[in-house]
Amino acid sequence: MRLLLVEDDRNLNRQVAAALSDAGYAVDKAYDGEEGQFLGETEPYDAVILDLGLPGIDGVSVLTNWRRAGRKMPVLILTARDRWSDKVQGFDAGADDYVAKPFHMEELLARIRALLRRSTGHATSELVAGSVRLDTRSGRVSVNGTPVKLTSHEYRLLSYLMHHSGRIVSRGELTEHLYDQDFDRDSNTIEVFVGRLRKKLGVDLIQTVRGLGYLVEAGPKAEA
């Protein structure tokens, strides 16, 4: 999953980006409204964390412009403003959630997980496909109850496919959503990661649909 973080406080930006990376996300960073708006308009993000008090273009204007341009990615507003009127303005502009500073990092991560879960049609933090379970809270993966250790890129790939189970995902889409903008992207590496995942999981989970991409069949819903 690929996220955009738009926050002008460089120390906070660095801390949040590090926490998101540690949680298994690819993260692009912007430090002002103009750069953030441009990235949000031109890159395919799974979710955005957007500060309201940005230099250049304020966060509400950025969000309004995204929504007018038809950008539908989930957006969580992150701001020091805690007046109810600011919250209403943010939601009316198209925000999906709101966190006021100061905040606990675990709460922010939980809200991002919830946004991603809802946007892909999942009810709980645990994704299930066949005998494979992926817990988005802990980042743990198991097959028939046995833990499977994955690298960060393998986890990102499996997580994206399981979040989008039931539909074919192209290599191009995977390349766009697994790596940040500074990564040297090569869609051929996706085949390598898929091969490694299949070997580690040891089950027939990831299907290759020739000429189209990869498919993980939708499994039963995990219990809350």
UniProtKB/TrEMBL annotation:
Location of 4-aspartylphosphate modifications: 51
InterPro entries linked: CheY-like_superfamily, OmpR/PhoB-type_DNA-bd, Sig_transdc_resp-reg_C-effctor, Sig_transdc_resp-reg_receiver, WalR-like, WH-like_DNA-bd_sf
Domain OmpR/PhoB-type residues, every copy: 124-218
GO biological processes: regulation of DNA-templated transcription
Record has Transcription as a keyword: yes
Any single GO CC term annotated in Swiss-Prot or TrEMBL for this entry: protein-DNA complex
CDD domains referenced in this protein's UniProt entry, alphabetically: REC_OmpR_EcPhoP-like, trans_reg_C
Pfam (any one): Response_reg
Cited SMART domains: REC, Trans_reg_C
Ranges of residues in domain Response regulatory: 2-116
Single GO MF descriptor: phosphorelay response regulator activity
Superkingdom in the source lineage: Bacteria
Xref: Gene3D superfamilies: 3.40.50.2300, 6.10.250.690, Winged helix-like DNA-binding domain superfamily/Winged helix DNA-binding domain
Residue range(s) of DNA binding per entry: 124-218
UniProt keyword annotations, A-Z: DNA-binding, Phosphoprotein, Transcription, Transcription regulation, Two-component regulatory system
UniProt name for this protein: Response regulator transcription factor
Organism: Enterovirga aerilata
